[in-house]
Amino acid sequence: MQTEKEKDSKIKAAVLAEYTDSELKGDPELLIDSARGINESKKFSATFADSREFLSKALNSAASLIITKKGLLDELELESFEKTFLLSDNPRRVFAQTAQLLTDRPYFTANISAEAVIADSAELGKNLSIHPGVIISENAEIGDNTILAPGVIIGPDVKIGNDCLFHPGVIIERESEIADQVIIQSGAVIGSDGFGYASDKRGHHKIPQQGNVVIESEVEIGANTTIDRGASGSTVIKKGAKLDNLVMIAHNVEVGEQSMLVGQVGIAGSTTLEKRVTLGGQAGVVGHINLAENTTGAARAMITSKTNQGDFISGAPAHDHKDALKEQAYLRRLPKYIKKIKQLEKRIAELEDK
């Protein structure tokens, strides 16, 4: 099986420096073939260190290229360097970009399997990797360089951009729109019906969900995450948002640019998250509210009302994180307080009896 990496399996350190906007110290002609952790590093691999402790370990590792902070190298006061370095204020970001260049895209074949089922009306781009068991329905559009792993199902009238990667078992329901460079992990369902009902004494009457899901570019969606279609209009995941595994997004939610939702987050219908909202694991958000830009909700926060820009909240119901920590501290002292109160009550009773 041919892979993209086989076309250019090694990259010069100078090219990596330019691509990652970092400062090069050492051999610009050094060829790098992989990006690894310090303990897993090998000759011709890159690794990264963001503290003196890890830099010392990296210097003694097999890695040929070390990505580290500006100034950190000077602190060690070494007389000579056997390795090559990329220096940056954000070495983790540089390492991530380096790893992206040097790591194969999973399931890349540049081939359309004869065991895929593709509607005649579907429009297919160039250089696609479509695996056995894939179903592409009527009027679907698939952009260039996109990878559909085994068992992916693409519904009718779905539009998918360029350079996307859908892992095995992903389901994209009808009329969903997905932009470029979107990664979706196994088992995710995009565009399922929202939870919409009108209730009376006879029962719960389904409200047809007539909208769709729109996912903008550079979004990543974790395994077994579900994003419901809009009841009317769209559920929107904006550019650069990252959703972990087992996240649930209800109908007509809008997730803002560069937001990060950690595992088991649940967001009820018609709620809006502005840019760079971060929600910790198992955080829940009620419907029809707005979380302002740069809001952070701690793990298990139960968010029931709108937030202001930059709020850091936790607890149930969620409120200012510092206040929540104080309340937790007071709660831990309750047994001592109760004991003290009983002692005081006993003392008062004794005084009253005299």
Number of helical segments?
A: 6
Number of domains: 3
What is the straight-line distance between the termini?
Answer: 95 Å
| Major β-sheet strand ordering | 10-13-16-19-24-27-30-33-36-38-39
CATH topology of the largest domain: UDP N-Acetylglucosamine Acyltransferase, domain 1
Unreliable stretches, pLDDT < 50, 5 or more residues?
1-7
> Main sheet?
11 strands, mixed
Helix percentage: 10-25%
Multimeric state: single chain
Structural class determined from secondary elements? alpha/beta
Rg to the nearest angstrom?
Answer: 27 Å
**Mean pLDDT figure:** 94
What is the assigned CATH homologous superfamily of the largest domain? Hexapeptide repeat proteins
Reported CATH architecture of the largest domain: 3 Solenoid
Number of strands: 39
Strand content: 25-35%
| Global shape | flat
Query: Would you state the CATH class of the largest domain?
Result: Mainly Beta
Note down, in words, how this protein is organized.
It is a single chain. The chain is α/β, with parallel strands linked by helices and 354 residues long. It has 3 domains: 11-102, MurE/MurF, N-terminal domain (Udp-n-acetylmuramoylalanyl-d-glutamate--2,6- Diaminopimelate Ligase, Chain: A, domain 1), CATH 3.40.1390; 173-313, UDP N-Acetylglucosamine Acyltransferase, domain 1; 321-353. The protein contains 6 helices and 39 strands. The strands form 6 sheets. It has an 11-stranded mixed beta sheet with strand order 10-13-16-19-24-27-30-33-36-38-39. A 10-stranded parallel beta sheet has the order 8-11-14-17-20-25-28-31-34-37, with no helix packed on it. Strands 9-12-15-18-23-26-29-32-35 form a 9-stranded parallel beta sheet, with no helix packed on it. The longest helix has 20 residues, at 334-353. The protein starts with 10 loop residues before the first strand and ends with a helix. Mean pLDDT is 94; it is low at 1-7. It is an enzyme of class 2 (transferase). The active site is at 251 (proton acceptor). GO terms for molecular function: N-acyltransferase activity; UDP-3-O-[(3R)-3-hydroxyacyl]-glucosamine N-acyltransferase activity. InterPro entries: Hexapep, LpxD, Trimer_LpxA-like_sf, UDP_GlcNAc_AcTrfase_non-rep. Keywords: Acyltransferase, Lipid A biosynthesis, Lipid biosynthesis, Lipid metabolism, Repeat, Transferase.
